[in-house]
């Protein structure tokens, strides 16, 4: 397993495992505390694991947390997703930077997203299971959502959106969210 820095988002990493495949399928390590520690992250900081299942075209996001934010490890454990990270940390050298990834169950690559970044994804396959490891308990009162189709972000979603939550569909623009955060 190796860690790869994501240049578009300061502090973001891809953790790329080494799958061992044979006639039975494959085996790979999807989390390694020593490797996480080697890039300056605390592996013990993660307190909650979650899983979402989506069907082709479903879009989730763009989400982030107010207050102290929320760092997370994201991995597509089955299927494929188009994953998006937007740096919304005003003091970051990559402020407003965007990064796009295809995560898949075949590669089992894990993406580390620093606190203060927005995140979203779209399912590219009939079924896509996405695992999250989050560094603090979820508090719905801190949920922030940004419009997935904000022209300022110009995210190249690969498929037409087949379904999304009401909250995501009615999300404010990036400019509105940034203005609210300044208050």
From TrEMBL:
SUPFAM superfamilies tied to this protein: RmlC-like cupins
Gene Ontology molecular function: any one: dTDP-4-dehydrorhamnose 3,5-epimerase activity
UniProt EC number: 5.1.3.13
Entry-linked Gene3D superfamilies: Jelly Rolls (2.60.120.10)
Keyword GTP-binding: no
Top EC class for this record: isomerase
Region (Disordered) residue spans: 164-183
Keywords: Isomerase
InterPro entries: RmlC-like (IPR000888), RmlC-like_jellyroll (IPR014710), RmlC_Cupin_sf (IPR011051)
Family assignment from sequence similarity: Belongs to the dTDP-4-dehydrorhamnose 3,5-epimerase family.
Protein name as catalogued: dTDP-4-dehydrorhamnose 3,5-epimerase
Organism: Streptomyces coeruleorubidus
Phylogenetic placement of the source organism: Bacteria, Bacillati, Actinomycetota, Actinomycetes, Kitasatosporales
């Amino acid at each position: 397993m190796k860690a790869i820095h994501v240049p578009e988002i300061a502090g973001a990493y891809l953790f790329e495992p080494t799958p061992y495949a044979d006639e039975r399928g494959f085996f790979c390590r999807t989390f390694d505390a020593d490797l996480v520690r080697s890039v300056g992250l605390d592996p013990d900081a993660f307190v909650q694991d979650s899983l979402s299942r989506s069907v082709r075209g479903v879009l989730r996001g763009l989400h982030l947390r107010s207050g102290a934010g929320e760092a997370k490890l994201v991995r597509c454990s089955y299927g494929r997703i188009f994953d998006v990270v937007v740096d919304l940390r005003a003091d970051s050298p990559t402020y407003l930077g965007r990064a796009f990834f295809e995560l898949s169950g075949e590669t089992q690559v894990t993406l580390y997203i620093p606190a203060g970044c927005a995140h979203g994804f779209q399912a590219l396959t009939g079924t896509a299971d996405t695992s999250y490891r989050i560094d603090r308990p979820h508090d719905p009162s801190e949920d922030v959502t940004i419009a997935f189709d904000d022209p300022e972000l110009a995210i190249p979603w690969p498929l037409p959106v087949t379904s999304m939550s009401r909250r995501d569909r009615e999300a404010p623009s990036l400019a509105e969210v940034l203005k609210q955060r300044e208050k």
